[in-house]
Amino acid sequence: MVKIAPSILSADFAHLAQSVQVVEKAGAEYLHIDVMDGHFVPNITIGPLVVQALRPHSKMFFDVHLMIEQPDRYAPDFIKAGADLVCVHAEACTHLHRCVCQVKELGARVGVSLNPHTPLSLIEYVLPMLDLVLLMTVNPGFGGQKFIPEVLPKIEALSRMIEEKGLATEIEVDGGINTETAALVARAGADVLVAGSAIFGAADPARAVAAIRKAAESSLTIGHQHRLKDDLAVV
Ligand SMILES: O=C(CO)[C@@H](O)[C@H](O)COP(=O)(O)O
Ligand SMILES: [Fe+2]
């Protein structure tokens, strides 16, 4: 079973609470909240006040993706505001282990994200501490970008690493996910699929949630085979 995480980056910011309620009713499991600081990525989005304002409007699992420098300075504010999970970028943390411990000590779930070019070796030693690893399938900073297929082998490798270590860490993928790419990432081993433009840019976001889930899950019923060469040929 996969989880669907609509990214509010592509939602109507003038009607955020209503947009969230639409995807919650549609059965999406996580609400993906993209936080950008104009330094780590070339875009600025939202801060803890928006998370705090949304919290009373939804029971969804708030998955906060921090694309910011010095995430240890702001993680506590996002947790206080209602984040269920805080995901920091490995590239933004000089002291990644300290950052991961900080989030856990504050009582939230913790994730670490990797940009498309960043190798898995960077998180190998903290992996047993993590609830989730977020593999970027676009260069972070904007919604609506094209999926980078070269990340597929990394999803497979992480899935094997998690299995070999006997861990329950979830693999989340983020960027360019639609009904076509959902099938590819699910087959590679992704558990949580973030989608922004494919959901909130659709005429009917609730149907889009169902369509992405169906595409991912039907690709798994064929069997979780390692057919990466065939998949790469499709993209
Ligand atoms: O973190 C990011 C972008 O940096 C994402 O969460 C985007 O919001 C995904 O948008 P789509 O690629 O699905 O439109
Ligand atoms: Fe994101």
Automatic annotation (TrEMBL):
InterPro entries: Aldolase_TIM (IPR013785), Ribul_P_3_epim (IPR026019), Ribul_P_3_epim-like (IPR000056), RibuloseP-bd_barrel (IPR011060). It catalyses: D-ribulose 5-phosphate = D-xylulose 5-phosphate. Binds 1 divalent metal cation per subunit. SUPFAM superfamilies: Ribulose-phoshate binding barrel. Keywords: Carbohydrate metabolism, Cobalt, Isomerase, Manganese, Metal-binding, Zinc. Its cofactor is a divalent metal cation; Zn(2+); Co(2+); Mn(2+). Gene3D superfamilies: Aldolase class I. GO terms for cellular component: cytoplasm. One of its GO terms (molecular function) is metal ion binding. The active site is at 34 (proton acceptor), 174 (proton donor). A divalent metal cation binds at residues 32, 34, 65, 174. Pathway: Carbohydrate degradation. Substrate binds at residues 7, 65, 141-144, 174-176, 196-197. One of its GO terms (biological process) is pentose catabolic process. Its EC number is 5.1.3.1. Catalyzes the reversible epimerization of D-ribulose 5-phosphate to D-xylulose 5-phosphate. Belongs to the ribulose-phosphate 3-epimerase family. This is Ribulose-phosphate 3-epimerase. It comes from Desulforamulus profundi. The lineage of its organism: Bacteria, Bacillati, Bacillota, Clostridia, Eubacteriales. The gene is rpe.
